[in-house]
Amino acid sequence: MTHPKNTLIDLCKSLGLPKPKFQTKRSGPEHDPTFVCDVLIKAEVYGTGQGSNKREAERRASEEALARLEPNKPAPKKPKKSKDATSATAEAVEENFEGPWPIFAEVLAASLEVANSRVSAELKGSEAVREVQRLALELYKGSLENLGEIIEVEIKE
Fold it and tell me: Where are the alpha helices (DSSP H) in 15-153?
């Protein structure tokens, strides 16, 4: 199976677009790094992906860029994860999410980095992940509010 990064490069070539550029940043502790990759075509972000390694982040970013370039092609389905502590934490964060908020990859990456640095080293495992997610969400929302990107809308039922 062809890696989505190669498929994206081939598609750009066939569409007469310049070769995509991949900007990947690493954050987090040495034992549990997080990689965030942006795919840029003509200096515009076409996809963003996150993963536990560079290849995974580039793959996810490429899949998102492919979906944007091929609007008639359905986006790839994400594999279902088992119900472990981490996925349960992610679901809990999603339940508290009051978006939709725009995604600014650099602001999000900075929020995660700051949150990771502020969480006590005494916390371990899913408890540490949950606290990093909670704090990152709080920092991200606060940053967007300060930038004027969040508009609270009252929904009438």
Answer: 54-69, 85-96, 105-118, 125-147
In this prediction, residue 92 carries a pLDDT of 45
CA distances to 4, 6, 156 from 1, in Å: 9, 11, 48
Residue ranges, comma separated, of all CATH 3.30.160.20 domains in the chain are 1-79
The CATH class given to the 1-79 domain equals alpha beta
> pTM, whole model, 2 decimals?
0.47
Residue 109, C-beta contacts closer than 8 angstroms, at least 6 positions apart: 25, 27, 36
101 vs 117: CA distance, rounded Å: 24
Amino acid 19: pLDDT: 94
What DSSP string runs through 77-102?
Answer: PPPPPP--HHHHHHHHHHHH------
Top-confidence residue, 81 or 22: 22
